[in-house]
Amino acid sequence: MHLPSSTGGRRVRVDGEILGLAHSVRDLVEFLRRAGLEIEPEQVADSPLIDWRGVGPDRWEAETRT
């Protein structure tokens, strides 16, 4: 999983193909399901199938700078 984008959401990529922009764990699970990967929402944080970059599954909003 990529870092949150400047407008919020995180890009989902499977085998080099971008599947879309997820705004929540629920979105992520749906993208993965469509790609043939069944995973439960409570498993995403610890799944070896997901490479979280920078921050984990609790961050989806754009980073605000002050």
Overview of the structural elements:
It contains 1 helix and 2 strands; from the N terminus they run E-E-H. It has one helix at residues 25-34; strands at residues 10-14, 17-22. It has a domain at 3-43. By secondary structure, the protein is an alpha+beta fold. The model has no long low-confidence stretch (mean pLDDT 90). Strand 1 and strand 2 (17-22) form a beta hairpin.
Give a quick set of tags describing it:
66 residues, alpha+beta, two-stranded antiparallel sheet, 1 helix
Kindly estimate the percentage of residues that lie in beta strands according to DSSP.
Answer: 15-25%
- The stretches of 5 or more residues where confidence is low (pLDDT under 50) are none
The computed structural class is alpha+beta
Oligomer: single chain
In helices, the fraction of residues equals 10-25%
Tell me the radius of gyration: 11 Å
First-last Cα distance: 25 Å
Q: Order of SSEs, N→C? A: EEH
**Reading side by side through the largest sheet, how are the strands ordered?**
1-2
Number of DSSP-assigned strands = 2
Q: What general outline do the C-alpha atoms trace?
A: globular
The whole-number mean of residue pLDDT values reads 90
Major beta sheet, specifics? 2 strands, antiparallel
Number of helices in the DSSP assignment: 1
Give a short summary of the structure:
Helix content is 15%, strand content 17%. With 66 residues, the chain is of the alpha+beta class. A two-stranded antiparallel ribbon has the order 1-2.
Outline the secondary-structure elements.
Layout: E1 10-14, E2 17-22, H1 25-34
Antiparallel strand pairs: 1-2
